[in-house]
């Protein structure tokens, strides 16, 4: 679970692996029907060798490990090893059952659309009154246990999705409650292995809801809901007591390292085997990417993650006895965001509510020159540097998309037409007494500092000031961690522009609403729910 899709140029991911190669992703081709497209997986895991350990590194640090609050990619890497869900997405981009015995579909009778719209649906959005709801059957594998030995069944899912998610004290939920709040009936069988639930209106992302893991009812009910973000899965003492559903469980945790050990209560749904590795260690370098790379080159870590194409030269010379460096496609890209809240400079500059201003800024950027500035000497990708994330299987629906043309004269013309002009001769445009000065926020990584400096120079040429600001402590902080006045907080909206990487979910329906729908603009009113950090509020979307 991580931030969803937005815009700008794609970068291939660079990974450093000790003693291993990387398989290129498999791109699904046109399928004859929906069932084949979504569920016809040919995934067949190979048998592993029991024993051993691995050390995985990231130059960022995690802040908490409850998957319903997470926003940073580094967090997701850890709990991907500790959490299972009803179904997952396989390497060939198909839904496959994990905790579930099977996946309910319309064709197999597991999903049944109502003949008539439900008369009472308190949470139905305006304009959805005539959309019928649907009933859905789910099942779960018998004999499942949490890592502490307690029974894991559909009562945990009902607790997570109905009781815990919808508790009014639960704030800062990354994905919000959309979809969960449309469930008006959730009936679990006496043995906890089957359930029938009813959505009071149509909801596109229902598969995505069950691609999130359950939380252990017996554990979470001991923690006040209002304190769950801080106390349920903390990165520190106590995490070892938090039950998990996946192949590994927590042994110890600190901001510099998290140790996982095999969960003896877990078996693979595909092979029936327990986890093969004895131990998984995550090391974190608190922003020091160079230190992580040095540790990889010295053979101290097995896998260095969260690297980009421009980092390849730093690891290319790794001793073959230690490992291999490789550049492979990834569903990840760097993007430049405009905060459209209009709350004032530093909180969504009012100029950014004007699409002509946003387009003018886009015309001011030479994306090829930007790439060459940030990654000098690194070969350009084959695709245009503004192409959508590869392979674009689900997110790119319009053929023939091209880069926005680099045209500073056009940018000047559009800003002039929008009334942003330099009235006092200081080189910075203004309007109604407000300077066109933008607070630009990022993590402080070297390539982002370089990109911010480049953007600032290009914007200066058209009369716009960009204040290049590194805020690693606040930019990704969740609603519960970031004070209301925290500068450069994406979730709080205290920025004008921002640059960070976006790692796409392979889950087709996992986060479309949370990123784009206006109800998912984090606010005091909705308890900080959602990932619409750019505050997009456009009826056409």
Descriptive terms for the model:
single chain; 541 residues; alpha+beta; 7-stranded mixed beta sheet; globular
Helix content: 10-25%
Low-confidence stretches: 1-15, 19-29, 389-397
Major β-sheet annotation: 7 strands, mixed
Distance between the termini: 23 Å
Count of DSSP strands: 19
Computed Rg: 24 Å
The backbone outline, from C-alpha atoms, is globular
Describe the structure.
By secondary structure, this protein is α+β, with helices and mostly antiparallel strands. It is 18% helix and 18% strand. A hairpin with a 2-residue loop joins strand 15 and strand 16 (434-435). Helix 9 (355-363) runs antiparallel to helix 11 (408-417) and helix 10 (367-374) runs antiparallel to helix 12 (446-461). The radius of gyration is 24 Å and the shape is globular. The chain starts with 12 loop residues before the first strand and ends in a 25-residue tail after the last helix.
């Amino acid at each position: 679970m991580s931030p969803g899709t937005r815009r700008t140029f794609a970068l291939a991911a660079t990974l450093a692996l000790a003693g291993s190669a990387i398989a290129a992703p498999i791109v699904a081709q046109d399928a004859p029907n929906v069932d084949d497209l979504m569920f016809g997986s040919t995934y067949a895991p190979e048998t592993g060798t029991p024993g051993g350990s691995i050390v995985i590194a990231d130059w960022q640090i995690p802040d908490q490990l409850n998957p319903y609050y997470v926003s940073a990619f580094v967090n997701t890497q850890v709990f991907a090893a500790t959490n299972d869900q009803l179904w997952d997405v396989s390497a060939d981009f198909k839904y496959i059952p994990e905790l579930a015995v099977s996946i309910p579909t319309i064709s197999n009778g597991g999903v049944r659309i109502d003949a008539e719209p439900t008369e009472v649906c308190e949470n139905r959005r305006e304009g959805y009154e005539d959309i019928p709801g649907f009933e859905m059957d789910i099942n779960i594998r018998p004999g499942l246990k949490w890592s502490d030995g307690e029974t894991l069944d559909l009562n945990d899912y009902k607790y997570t999705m109905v009781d815990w998610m919808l508790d009014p004290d639960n704030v800062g939920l990354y994905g919000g409650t959309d979809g969960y709040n449309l469930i008006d009936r959730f009936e679990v069988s006496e043995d906890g292995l089957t359930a029938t639930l009813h959505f009071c209106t149509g909801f596109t992302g229902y598969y995505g809801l069950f691609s999130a893991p359950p939380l252990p009812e017996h554990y979470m009910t001991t923690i006040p809901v209002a304190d769950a973000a801080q106390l349920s899965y903390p990165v520190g003492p106590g995490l070892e007591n938090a039950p998990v559903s996946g192949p590994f469980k927590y042994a110890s945790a600190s901001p510099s390292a998290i140790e996982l050990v095999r969960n003896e209560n877990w078996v693979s749904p595909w092979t029936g085997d327990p986890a093969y590795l004895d131990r998984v260690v995550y090391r974190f370098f608190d922003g020091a990417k160079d230190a992580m790379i040095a540790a990889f080159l010295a053979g101290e870590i097995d896998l260095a993650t969260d690297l980009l194409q421009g980092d390849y030269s730093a690891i290319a010379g790794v001793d073959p006895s230690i490992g291999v460096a490789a550049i492979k496609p990834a569903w990840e890209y760097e993007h430049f965001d405009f905060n459209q809240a209009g709350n004032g400079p530093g909180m969504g500059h009012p100029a950014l509510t004007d699409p002509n201003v946003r387009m003018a800024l886009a015309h001011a950027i030479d994306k090829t020159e930007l790439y060459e500035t940030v990654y000098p000497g690194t070969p350009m990708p084959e695709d245009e540097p503004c192409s959508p994330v590869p392979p674009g299987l689900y997110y790119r629906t319009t053929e023939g998309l091209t880069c926005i043309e680099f045209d500073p004269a056009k940018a000047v013309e559009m800003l002039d037409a929008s009334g942003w002009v330099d009235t006092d001769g200081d080189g910075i445009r203004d309007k109604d007494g407000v300077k066109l000065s933008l607070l630009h926020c990022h993590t402080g990584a070297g390539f982002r500092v370089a990109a911010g400096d480049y953007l600032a120079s290009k914007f200066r040429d058209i009369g716009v000031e960009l204040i290049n600001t590194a805020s690693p402590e606040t930019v990704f902080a969740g609603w519960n961690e970031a004070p209301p006045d925290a500068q450069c907080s994406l979730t709080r909206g205290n920025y004008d522009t921002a640059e960070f990487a976006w790692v796409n979910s392979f889950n087709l329906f996992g986060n479309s609403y949370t990123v784009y729908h206006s109800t998912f603009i984090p606010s005091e009113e909705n308890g900080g729910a959602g990932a619409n950090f750019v505050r997009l509020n456009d009826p056409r979307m």
